[in-house]
Structures are given as C-alpha cells and as structure tokens.
Specification:
The complex is a heterodimer of chains A (about 210) and B (about 210). With about 210 residues, chain A is an all-alpha fold. Chain A has one domain. Chain A has helices at about 1-10, 20, 25-30, 35-60, 70-90, 95-100, 110-120, 125-155, 175-209, and strands at about 155-160, 160. A two-stranded antiparallel sheet of chain A has the order 1-2. Chain B has four helices and seven strands. The chains are: A mainly alpha (about 210), B alpha+beta (about 210).
Chain lengths: ~210, ~210
C-alpha cells in the first residue's frame, strides 16, 4: 500500500509530468509564466484547487450518479476556484492583479477535470491525495521553471532580483507570448530526449543480460 | 425514476452547498478586497498631490455619468490641487490613471497608473518613473501632446515610449479627456475654496503604490 502511494505520488513528477509529458494544462503554462513568481503563484492556486476538489470528488464518488458527474464535478471545481480567487484578491492583491483573468480560468484547466475522471472517481482518498499532490507539485515545478527561464532571458532577473548586469540586453520576446512557445518547445524536446535516452539505456541493459 | 430523483438530488445538494460556501467566503473576503482597493486609491491620491495631507471628495452627476474628484488640502486646509481618475482604452485593455491637477487648472502635478493590461516590457513601461515623471509640471493648455523619438520641445509635450506609442497615446488621451471634464464641471472657486484644516493625525507616508 505504502509502495503504491509512493508510486502514485512520484509519477506526477516525471512520468506524467502534466505540461511536458501529458501536454495538459497548457493555457496557464503558456500564459502566466512571464516571471518566476507568477508561475509559482499560478501553480500554488492550481494545486489548492486540484487537491481539494479531487479529495471531495473521491469522497462523493459513490453518491453521484454517473450521468450527472461532469456537471457535479464542474460545480465543485468552480466553487473552489472562486474561493481561491477571492482569497488571492483579499490577501495578495498584487499577485491577483498580475494573474488577472487566469485564476478564474483554472475551472477549465484540463488537469483538474482530467485527474477527477481518470483517478479520483475510481480511487479512495489516500491514493487520490498522493496522485494530486504529485501531479500538482510537478505542475508547480514546471511553471516555476518556465517562469524562471523566461524571466532570466526577458528581464535579466529571477524572482524580481536582478541577476544579470547592465551589459545584458533583455530579450523582450521571451516575456511575450512567442517566448512562451519557444521555451515550452525547448523544454518538451529536452524532456523527450532525456526519457528516450532512459528507455534506450534500459533496452541495452536488457539486451546485454 | 429512482435514478432521475437521485440525479436531481445530487445536483441540488451540490449547488446548494457551493452557494453556502461561496457566500461565506465572500462575506469575509469582500470587505478586505474593498479595503485593498481603497488603500490603493488613497495612496495614489497622495502620490499625485504631493504636499496634500488630507482630501475631500467632491461628487457631481453629469448626465449618466458620475464625476468624482478628490480635492487635496494641506495641514491648514488650503487646497493644493485636485486628483481624479482617468480611465480609457489602451492597447490591450483599460488603462486606469490617477491624475493630479493644480488648483489653477494649468499644470499637472503628477500621474500614477492604477491599472493597466499593456504588453509586458513594452506598453507596461508607462508605469516606469521615467515616463510618469514627464507629467510633473506639464501644462494642460491647450492640451497634452506627445511626440516620438525626440525630446519634447513645448511645455505641454511628453516623449512617447519607443515601441509603445499606442500605450503612450492612450495615457495622453485619457488625461486630456478627464481634465476637460473636470475643468468643465468643477468651477475654479469650488477648488480654490479653503477647507477646514484636517484633524491632527500622524502624517501619512504615501508609499509609492506599486
């Protein structure tokens, strides 16, 4: 059981890393990662909604009749997103301002409904918690990495701290939408290259045995 | 039949619960959000009216529109200028400004950007001090103008940000439109009239609201 939980958690960090491996949740991945702190904040808001909504869905999975499960899940998710939106606006107005309309759009983030359909509605609370935490942390790390790369190249800073001196001419394109696609494409290629080398090595090891 | 009742109950219960949760959270969060907005507005008023210690709110309804100006007064109650909001479309969305005008309606005191959705790195440089500083002491008669690529020559001109002419132009247009409305609807004697001195409170440090 413990092993199983460990697996459910770990798969979100590499094997099913949402944006780069599953290619899910691209709207926030491309739209809000123009600085590291925005990526991190978006990831945090998403993991909150992902975790709580999937736990709730896992709890009620036997009571909800399957014909109305999608509207029921969407209402649960939308409620939690609104809670997160109000919380950010009340406590962190600056972050809420810079993320703007992308917080309400978490409702339609396909990672959340995807996990609900693929996992939470078939599993009990503990595996669901492990699964969503893994996927959520993978998502936070991915967004923060995207934001960090774009911020370094586009502003010469990281988390708002100046990193590169005045000799550095910022690549403004990196913080514009085009930069999101460039960085995203590069990272997908990198992740695929690493994983294909891994499979090759595993195949070689199997052959020589 | 049973299944229909179950489906019905599922959705009703979930909908009702989420309504209860939302109204609870909203009840707590709404006053905080309003307080944040108000604090931001107040800070901006003191930024665009340097020397002001307090302000009076003047309201007027013109046709459908409600005009609000904030009359800044110093510690003796003497007016130092008026601040008002100037909203209007920018390159991608609304640009909301707070504008400070002197009591003789001739020169701007300062401009602060409250909200904007301009392109990061280009249009959003209207928030930079270098751009905003150009409005300090700028003449508003006959109207504010912008020029490109070179230093302003007349006392009513600013230099547009290279690569963000549309955003710069939108700022200038918003200011002109708002100044015109305020000048037309608030006679000068209302603005120059002294007010009661503000109650003694700890001097407000107007942090640069960023």
């Amino acid at each position: 059981m413990a092993n199983n939980l460990g697996y459910e958690f770990k798969k979100g960090l590499w094997q099913e890393l949402p944006p780069f491996r599953l290619v899910l949740g691209l709207c926030p991945t491309l739209a809000v990662t123009n600085s590291a702190v925005n990526g991190l904040a978006m990831g945090m808001a998403t993991i909150f909604v992902l975790f709580t909504s999937n736990i709730l869905i896992s709890l009620v999975r036997r009571t909800i009749s399957s014909q109305v499960r999608i509207p029921a899940y969407v209402v649960i998710i939308a409620t939690l997103v609104t809670v997160a939106d109000l919380f950010l606006a009340a406590v962190f107005p600056a972050i809420s301002k810079s993320l703007g309309p992308y917080i309400p759009l978490i409702v339609v983030n396909c990672i959340i409904l995807g996990r609900a359909e693929a996992f939470a509605q078939k599993n009990s609370i503990l595996p669901t918690a492990a699964d969503t935490l893994g996927i959520g942390i993978g998502f936070i790390l991915s967004l923060t990495l995207m934001g960090t790369i774009r911020e370094i190249l586009g502003f010469g800073s990281i988390f708002g701290v100046k990193l590169l001196g005045s000799w550095f001419e910022p690549w403004i394109v990196m913080i514009l939408p085009a930069g999101a696609f460039l960085v995203f494409g590069g990272l997908v290629a990198l992740v695929n290259w690493i994983s294909s080398r891994k499979t090759e090595k595993a195949a070689e090891a199997a052959m020589s045995r | 039949m049973n299944n229909i009742v179950k489906m019905f109950l599922n959705l009703v219960v979930i909908g009702a619960l989420s309504g209860v949760i939302l109204s609870g959270v909203f009840g707590v969060a709404d006053p905080m959000i309003k307080a944040n907005k108000e604090k931001e507005l107040k800070e901006a008023i003191f930024v665009v009216l340097p020397g002001a210690k307090d302000f009076k709110v003047l309201e007027k309804t013109v046709g459908q529109e409600k005009l609000i100006v904030y009359k800044g007064i110093d510690e003796n109650g003497a007016p130092v200028g008026v601040a008002f909001k100037a909203d209007g479309g920018g390159f991608q969305g609304n640009i909301g400004l707070m504008v400070g005008l002197d009591t003789s309606y001739l020169k701007l005191k300062a401009v602060e950007v409250l909200e904007q959705l301009e392109t990061p790195g280009l249009g959003d440089r209207i928030r930079e001090e270098a751009f905003k500083d150009q409005f300090k002491g700028l003449e508003v008669k006959p109207k504010v103008e912008y020029i490109k690529y070179r230093k302003p020559e007349k006392p009513n001109q600013i230099q547009a940000i290279t690569g963000a002419t549309i955003s710069s132009e939108a700022v200038v247009k918003n200011i002109n439109r708002a100044v015109e409305k305020v000048v037309a609807n608030f006679p000068a004697e209302e603005i120059t009239r002294a007010e009661a001195a503000p109650e003694k409170v700890a001097p407000k440090e107007s942090g640069n609201g960023k």
